[in-house]
Write a structure and sequence with these properties.
This protein is α/β, with parallel strands linked by helices. Helices cover 36% and strands 14% of the residues. It has a six-stranded parallel β-sheet with strand order 3-2-1-4-5-6, sandwiched between helices. The chain has a three-stranded antiparallel β-sheet with strand order 7-8-9, with helices on one face. The longest helix has 25 residues, at 157-181.
């Protein structure tokens, strides 16, 4: 059931990065119990829960954490967990009486994972924000887009889901350390930090004067004509990344272009002329025709696919990269493991769904479960 089988995680309902981290951990076999609000109104979530793929694999209980009974129930749940994760603004869990000082005093081995945009400390810590704000401050947004045009947000992948990966990684690291030391700790994962961490290579390029300040003028930002996307005859796109000379040579050969008649690959002054030749060449065939031309070639070529097209591409199908859960197509767990593969047990739970079974498996006796329900905890036996 995955390499994290046996790990108990208490996840407090949030949006964005925190549930993505919970999905990654649940996919790898962790038993993630989601502490939900009784309704989605407070979070402004109007979409059907069955389609929220990031909540797959959990079981759920509901609690009002602002009531004395809800606090007592949450403390009892946390006492059974190896890990707690939350995605509130700094200070919220402390005001609820569920901060790390309280819980680590009661449960010294607990790993307390915190997911925020700006981090737990610093002058912006309490300020609202979203992915685009965090990657803007990290320098990422300013580097993405065409020269002379406004920056282009790369969906919300870098901040939100990079942050979720950072939290999941931090939790896994802290769990390993806790098993050695017998002591838990706080994991402070920030979306700003994840975005900044992803720029490590570019810090080296800047130090070596291999990265210019203007976006859209460098090797990896669409500035180089041989690392970009091009329109095809049928108004689709293909992507090329022929950085190395041997791959660039194959690219030109498959395009039917004479290397001697073109500007040199790294002649920046003549990149516009080279781009014009590549644009003209790719516009002469459809995307599928170019796929046939480049079939089997090491030219660093790929068609630009939609999400739907990607799911049915032969390579992704061969690796089992798409799942159908409750009629919703979604990415399969990753990475792949040779002996303990990840698995999705079921789709997103309804609020409170399967909570009673989870509590029983977490070691609560029937009378204790009844006492928790009396404190206001909602937990059903079914999905």
């Amino acid at each position: 059931m995955g390499p994290l089988t046996g790990l108990r995680i208490l996840e407090f309902e949030a949006i964005g990065a925190a549930p993505f981290a919970g999905m990654l951990l649940a996919d790898m076999g962790a038993d993630v119990l989601l502490v939900d609000r009784a309704s989605a109104t407070a979070l402004g979530l109007e979409s059907p829960r069955w389609s929220d793929t990031m909540l797959r694999g959990r079981r759920s209980v509901t609690l009002d954490l602002k009531t004395p009974g809800g606090l007592q129930a949450a403390l009892q749940l946390a006492a059974k967990a190896d890990v707690l994760t939350e995605g509130f603004r700094p200070g919220v869990m402390e005001r609820l009486g569920l901060g790390p000082e309280v819980l680590l005093a009661r449960h010294p081995k607990l790993v307390y994972g915190r997911m925020t945009g700006w981090g737990q400390t610093g002058p912006l810590a309490a300020r609202a924000g979203h992915d685009i704000n965090y990657i803007a401050l990290a320098g990422v947004l300013g580097a993405i887009g065409r020269a002379g045009e406004a920056p282009v947000p790369p969906l919300n992948l870098v901040g939100d889901f990079g942050g979720g990966m950072l939290l999941a990684f931090g939790v896994a690291c802290a769990v390993i350390e806790a098993r050695q030391s017998g002591r838990g700790q706080v994991v402070d994962a920030a979306m700003l930090d994840s975005a900044s961490l992803m720029t490590s290579m570019f810090a080296g390029l800047q130090a070596n004067r291999q990265w210019q300040g203007e976006r859209g003028s460098n090797l990896l930002d669409g500035g180089a004509p041989w690392y970009d996307s091009y329109a095809t005859l049928d108004h689709q796109y293909v992507a090329i990344g022929a950085i190395e000379p041997k791959f660039y040579a194959v690219l030109l050969e498959r395009l039917g272009l004479d290397d001697d008649s073109l500007p040199a690959q790294h002649d920046r002054a003549r990149w516009p002329a080279l781009r014009a030749r590549l644009t003209q060449a790719f516009a002469s065939k459809t995307r599928d025709e170019w796929c046939a031309v480049f079939d089997g070639a090491d030219a660093c070529f790929a068609p630009v696919l939609s999400f739907a097209e990607s799911r049915v591409h032969a390579h992704n199908l061969a690796r089992g990269r798409t799942l159908q859960i409750d009629g919703v197509a979604q990415p399969a767990p990753a990475p792949l493991f040779g002996r303990t593969p990840g698995v999705v047990r079921h789709g997103p739970p309804a609020r409170g769904a399967m909570g009673r079974a989870a509590l029983s498996e977490w070691g609560f006796a029937p009378s204790e479960i009844d006492a928790l329900i009396a404190l206001g905890l909602g937990a059903s036996s079914t999905g």
